[in-house]
Design brief:
Length: 474
Amino acid sequence: MPAYKLIIDGKKVSTTETFPVLNPATEKVVAQAPKATVEQLNEAVAAARRAFPAWSATPDAERSRLVHAIADTLEAHGEELTKLLTLEQGKPGVGFAGMGGAFEIGGTLAWAHATADLELPVEVIQDNDEARIEVHRKPLGVIGSITPWNFPLMIAIWHVMPALRSGNTVVIKPSEFTPLTTLRAVELMNELLPPGVLNIVTGDGSLGAAMSSHPDINKIVFTGSTATGKKIMQSAAGNLKRITLELGGNDAAIVLPDTDVAAAAPKIFATALFNNGQTCAALKRLYVHEDIYDEMCNALAAIAGSVKTGDGSVEGIDFGPIQNKTQFEKVCAIASEAKTSGARFLTGGEPVKGAGYFFPVTIVADIADDTRLVAEEPFGPILPVLKFSDVEDALRRANDSNNGLGGSVWSADVARATALASRLECGTAWVNGHAMIQPNMPFGGVKESGMGVEFGRYGLEEYTTIQSLYIAKG
Ligand code: NDP
């Protein structure tokens, strides 16, 4: 087992204590990760603070070059990182529709390169006899990044690259469930970056709260649950930290009666279940018009019946285990409650016996809106299919949620679907697709799904603050 270490101020740092990282397919320990103390977190923040003046003054073109170079390094180590992802996260390398670990690495590279090419030029909003007024974007300082276990590497890149690109320094803390890929990637990145620009601490329990209340961290970027997002918002008030919160979603999709079911079903299945449903913007509530309800249920069940769930390190596996025991137990409880409610299970429904957190792909029909499976984000391989007869009623039910990350409308009539999609209460609405994110399109939630956006120029701006420069004339 390789010895993983923290990276603080460009140096590998050992810890007195470690914590075990499990393979969710076997429940066996695959590595010990360093358990940082709050003092070590403080050292990481201090190192990032010391590195900030020089890094923020580094020419923009040089920071862009380094972000591209980071992407190249990660690409060169793509195979190693994909294997690590399978080991600690559970996802297969290829997986269903090619959306496994290699897909995550591909996303990582795409986002890194795209972020490297972003620019925040000075804006001149007035230049006349009275004054020249410029709007400058300045980096915030030290960014604290707290990343989740569903896409450990890609989400780390979503946080870290725009932070670095815009001149900030970073302390990242990955999920205790999946620290290894990020520890290795940060080690690789530190071969390129000046010391202190990117630091990593790992631990299991006390670091997150210490980061969000830290007086010398200027912004927290967090991807995870709404409950923890709310805590972060509260503790960020201490020094008025900026926050970007990308939280839970319970995305609805409305399928209108003119939809070509045979063409739509595979796309709906993929967007609901990829990464085993452990995706913030996955399609999680499927509202289908009564005219095509049975046809859609049958089509989805047929696909679900044809896929393989198993150890992601075995070739040909479509879906790996659920990433951790708590999440596994949550999915089991949600499925069991749906069963008790009398819902009709078309596939799956019971956890696989034996080692590993395996739950088969489960499609549930004839389910009530007030069951946990519909009302909560299950974050697992289980999809409720709900019937509607009136489109306005479907829209009301879709919007009847505290979440508002994404949503979609499916129809042969694109204009009608677009008009309906724009009435969904969510940060991103898709027509004839779902969860289609890309590096140039802002992405974020409304209601309790988050605050702020990531990606593209809008996302980059969130790592900066405005300085207006008024140059008097005459
Ligand atoms: P959480 O949302 O609870 O996040 C855990 C992370 O938050 C850890 O890194 C933890 O650090 C940190 N943390 C905890 N308290 C604070 C605090 N006060 N300030 C700052 N950081 C804090 O994740 P879970 O893994 O428990 O997942 C729970 C649910 O979240 C899932 O069921 C799913 O619904 C959703 N989720 C959503 C994701 C998304 O992509 N939006 C991704 C993953 C999960 P420490 O260990 O140091 O306390």
